[in-house]
Amino acid sequence: MMKKRILVSLAALIFFAVLTLFAPTAGASPTVTVTTETYDIYGATAQELRDQMVLFGVTWKDGKKYDALTTWITRWHYTWESGIHHCEISGVETSVEVLFRLPKWVNKAESPPALRHRWERYMKALQMHENGHKDIGIAAAADIEAAIARMPAERTCEALELAANALGESILETYRALETDYDRHTGHGQTQGAVFP
Fold first, then answer.
1. Selection from 192, 47, 197 nearest residue 128 by Cα
2. Is 160 in a helix, a strand, or coil?
3. At what angle do helices 113-149 and 2-21 cross, to 10 degrees?
4. Collapsed DSSP state (helix, strand, coil) of residue 33
């Protein structure tokens, strides 16, 4: 029993750290669009549901199947003002498109209440984990927006454009690495309770 309590506390600490780490940058306000897609599963037992998720789950670029998957795309757009010997950023806008892919238990209403309750608990934990991925994408966009807005002027607008895009890509790489760490530290959501059956 003590081991379980320590595990839950550790998961809570990791999730709190993730939320704190990925708090939006002050002054930056990315536009966020969230879409949810589902894939149907059927089952009357926990094992049948697990088998269905293994069969129909979402395949990621690592070739593995997962019960759920969240992807995000960050875009940035900026304007500049040019003078005789300089070019500087005059405005930045960022956007994030988040896509959740989740299982949908189609015949849930026909199943025993205990199994439905177990499923709901699992889905709540799974969504919490996927929301962590969403928060990482939003934080990446906010950091890009803030960083490009703070860029010093360049001698030419071409140089400014190259520097701004390189900065955005560099920040994206950092957040992709943080996302990998997030999955590693949470066991793809297992330490947050996303385990079924």
1. 192
2. helix
3. 30
4. strand
User: Two tokens at 154?
Assistant: 């360049």
User: pLDDT tens digits, residue range 94-149?
Assistant: 999 999 999 999 999 999 999 999 999 999 999 999 999 999 999 999 999 999 99
Among residues 140, 132, 158, 34, the alpha carbon closest in space to that of 94 is found at: 140
Residue at token pair 């757009």: 77
Q: What backbone torsions phi and psi does residue 115 show, to the nearest 5 degrees?
A: -70, -40
d(CA 72, CA 135): 10
Q: How many CA atoms lie within 13 A of 126 on its CB side?
A: 19
Q: Is the CB of residue 193 less than 8 Å from the CB of residue 125?
A: yes
List pLDDT tens digits, range 154-189: 999 999 999 999 999 999 999 999 999 999 999 999
Neighbours of 77 (CB within 10 A): 11
Q: Is 65 helix (H, G, I), strand (E, B) or coil?
A: strand
- Token pair in block for residue 11: 């998961």
Measured between alpha carbons, how far is 135 from 15 in angstroms, rounded to an integer?
11
pTM of the predicted model as reported, rounded to 2 decimal places: 0.85
Residue 6 has pLDDT above 90, yes or no: no
What is the pLDDT, as a whole number, of residue 25?
A: 56
Q: Are 197 and 41 in contact (CB under 8 A)?
A: no
**Cα(186)–Cα(163) distance, integer angstroms:** 35
